[in-house]
Amino acid sequence: xxxxxxxxxxxxxxxxxxxxxxxxxxxxxxxxxxxxxxxxxxxxxxxxxxxxxxxxxxxxxxxxxxxxxxxxxxxxxxxxxxxxxxxxxxxxxxxxxxxxxxxxxxxxxxxxxxxxxxxxxxxxxxxxxxxxxxxxxxxxxxxxxxxxxxxxxxxxxxxxxxxxxxxxxxxxxxxxxxxxxxxxxxxxxxxxxxxxxxxxxxxxxxxxxxxxxxxxxxxxxxxxxxxxxxxxxxxxxxxxxxxxxxxxxxxxxxxxxxxxxxxxxxxxxxxxxxxxxxxxxxxxxxxxxxxxxxxxxxxxxxxxxxxxxxxxxxxxxxxxxxxxxxxxxxxxxxxxxxxxxxxxxxxxxxxxxxxxxxxxxxxxxxxxxxxxxxxxxxxxxxxxxxxxxxxxxxxxxxxxxx
Length: 402
Known about the structure:
The protein is an alpha/beta fold. The protein is 31% helix and 18% strand.
């Protein structure tokens, strides 16, 4: 969950559309270029522009062909208030440093997305009174920089605050409506099961508000992952969660799904090499996923010494690499480079035989199995007269069709 950002990163409200005013992303005084394709915004790696020894984006673009970067993070002010700042300390309205970097990127034919939230600091969804005021704060960022893309990085501890998540999702929906063509991604924590309880609650909040971004991305690291196989398994499980939450078929869910990895050594000591990135890239392209990004360009260079003493760094990867090795996978994704091998199709599972039918009068304990509505179910704990599948958080675990 990018804890590294919290320990190494530091660094006149616009009233929105109560009157129905539309803020066009192409109308601004920042010299914004025309929008890139959505594929580029989907491939933009994260870059901290004011912290963690920011690398020269022009050099990265020249070396790799990269065109889009994801600038992180916009937060509420450290001293309180509902106005956008970089890292809680640098007010967006008076910023010149990030604007200069954006101008450099655009002068080379590229563009940026801006990410709000992240792991550390106070988020605007926590500080602002409601969705409209949260959106007004973010609209300042969109208007100042002439943005065509924005990322909502909703994770610990904010996503444990239901009111804050309601504000963030509501703000995302308002921005999407008031900025036609705005590319919106939502990034959250990943687990082996796809995402955890709070991630699922965030998806349910989006469903309840009728909000659909370009993608929901998970971060499959810092959770006991071990290389690419565990990450692709999490992506497959997350796809099932998207299907069940929104009623999408598998292809539609993948078209709204994204991957946000961590290059090299993660905060918890997991290692993700170039080979792991290639495997996940092949999975993403072969399943027509919408996004492939990583944390971060600040770390996309070799440490000195290469293993960095077994510590995770905000300025290097702690694996053996050439500078900007990992950025090249984003470039490949933006170009929709096909997989190096043809993936084996996942076979449709054959339904198993049904367990004994569930009874409303029987007492079941943990591990007992029953069948109900042509599915097998396993009890998570003691239960009686609780219908299998009646609640996602109920005592029954769905074991599939029978």
